[in-house]
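Recap slide: Ribosome-releasing factor 2, mitochondrial, sequence and predicted structure.
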Amino acid sequence: MSNLRIFAMNHKKISSLHINNMCSSKIRASLKRLRLHVLLGRNYSSLPGLIGNDIKSLHSIINPPIAKIRNIGIMAHIDAGKTTTTERILYYSGYTRSLGDVDDGDTVTDFMAQERERGITIQSAAVTFDWKGYRINLIDTPGHVDFTLEVERCLRVLDGAVAVFDASAGVEAQTLTVWRQADKHKIPRICFLNKMDKIGASFNYAVESIREKLKAKPLLLQLPIGEGKTFKGVVDVVSKEKLLWNPNSDDGKDFERKPLLEMSDPELLKEITEARNALIEQVADLDDEFADLVLGEFSENFDLLPAEKLQTAVHRVTLAQTAVPVLCGSALKNKGVQPLLDAITMYLPSPEERNYEFLQWYKGDLCALAFKVLHDKQRGPLVFMRIYSGMIKPQLAIHNINGNCTERISRLLLPFADHHVEIPSLTAGNIALTVGLKHTATGDTIVSSKSSALAACRRAEREGEKKHRQNSEAERLLLAGVEIPEPVFFCTIEPPSMAKQPDLDHALKCLQREDPSLKVKLDPDSGQTILCGMGELHIEIIHDRIKREYGLETYLGPLQVAYRETILNSVRATDTLDRTLGDRRHLVTVELEAKSLETSSLLPVIEYAASVAEDLSQASREAIENGLHSACLQGPLLGFPIQDVAITLHSLVIHPGTSTTMISACVSRCLQKALKKADKQILEPLMNLEVTMTRDYLSPVLADLAQRRGNIQEIQTRQDNKVIIGFVPLAEIMGYSTVLRTLTSGSATFALELSNYQAMNPQDQSTLLSQRSGLS
């Protein structure tokens, strides 16, 4: 590649990226040094970083200044238009040459076969592109509740987010979930009210629902011109300009920005002036620096306040998360996306504006988080990484703290959804794609070496001592990963023949590295492989992927609900284990008490009587806890895990020379004996359910939910629709989507989310027990 020339032309004139002879010797030398490989499989309108005819230095293309980087995610309820918005963003930034459509199955970020068939996003895809000199790493996340972990995993590495809303529906069930996740990770957000062209779209209703349901303060930076079929553009409140899209333009690139004038738009100008004054007052209440400026220089006339000052103040308020800027548009009709891109660069933070506490301990050494693993047939595992500090290069040896192993990165890529560009290095603030890491899994912390990690740990401990913190907290901050929710569904999976079992095990191992919310375990009684997942769709997609990607025709057993068990009263039990193995006698006598807990706890709460705790060694204590935990994995009724139980150890006599394995076995057996004597209760998963339908279908849907043991909390009116909010046991909701479609002629939608586990009533419990024992 020594004699190369980059012809960067306007993307309207060029159909693919041509690399021929190089004109400048300086660029030739840098290109030789960098060996920039560009994949030519897709029609890139320009190399990332080349806008129009502007050829930049290659270093600024690959490693832009950190202040010019934006790591953002697009999050929303299912079907609010996240993927369509992403598609338009890529088109206007010059990355794609044609507008992809979810319905046609040709979008960039939904590249899995299942995503294109179903028109939903399952995995989050990372895309890198440039906009007006800014590098934007954008992640399109799923909105479906079964893939909540995908959203959680990506929010962990973002600096800012765009929350997309359906303007006709406002805040929906899954919007609340992703909003809470973003609150947990303290991510600044801007809101985009999409689908302003849809019949029933209401700007004011959507803004009010953000205020009421999300308890956020919306800052109206834009107002729509028309709603529904009459929607034709937006008004920029900050600069008092109207943006009108040319109705004859196919792709929405052609729009004009006009200042509002007293002559042509007197009523609109009056409305926008009032909105701008209200915005200035709102921002002044939240930002002291801006308040001083407004009260000092511009108290007489807000119109004189420059737009730049207001924009800077909105940026500060967004960073502080005291309010959220609101914009509007229609991604499908190509309106309002360019101003959204401007708002992303203007109001969302760069990596250096986010305060990550653990960075001070690394002192510029490499610190990165692996937030996603994909399996590529040619290249093996591809690991997405967010670099917090330091630099990554190919052939670099890195240390994985979670796995406590050292690996080598063979190649480094920039992610363009399913197409990748090879690069020579990447600095802090960027999102990279690495090849060659065989053992790294989702949520692992990556550092340059073991000594670097130990040095960071020592600094964290010193800092902790100054602030009177415990070391464990310093460690937890050091290895911040992703919380994995408990699965609620399980079913058996079998290969077509026993010869294919190793292939199935390999496929499941790869899929587990990609998706930690998928759990795989072996049934000790039948020897069957059991899949545990987040929902019907989740398990269905896994089954489909095993077939497509690994060529295995597997058989799934019937879906079953993951119940739990508990006890209702207090019981005592005593057990003695006396075995002689070889010339050693193992003798343990245990007396313990099990009782129910008032509060919910997945693991047993273990207490020791004062006489036992005094002379108990650490090894014996660990053996006891292992035995108790293993006994709680299988309850006495149906073999489901036991929860909400407190166990007190009243006496423990151990013969000298008894092994810890025997102590565990005796304690475990004694607890099982106690649990069998107790009054037992089955707990079933209870789901939050939200069903949206037109008024005509309210009665049949309510009647159906009553048959499903549903508990209706409230019925809301959302414009012309009715929304039922309530709780339904998971066992009753299997296959509900098909029934709901039939009842409402395909017009209703529903969203589910695990609420908690609750006790079954005696009648339902006895029915379940007789079903399981084969008596009914």
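Residues 196 and 449 are 51 Å apart (CA to CA).
Confidence is low (pLDDT under 50) at residues 1-59, 108-112, 115-124, 468-479.
(End of recap.)
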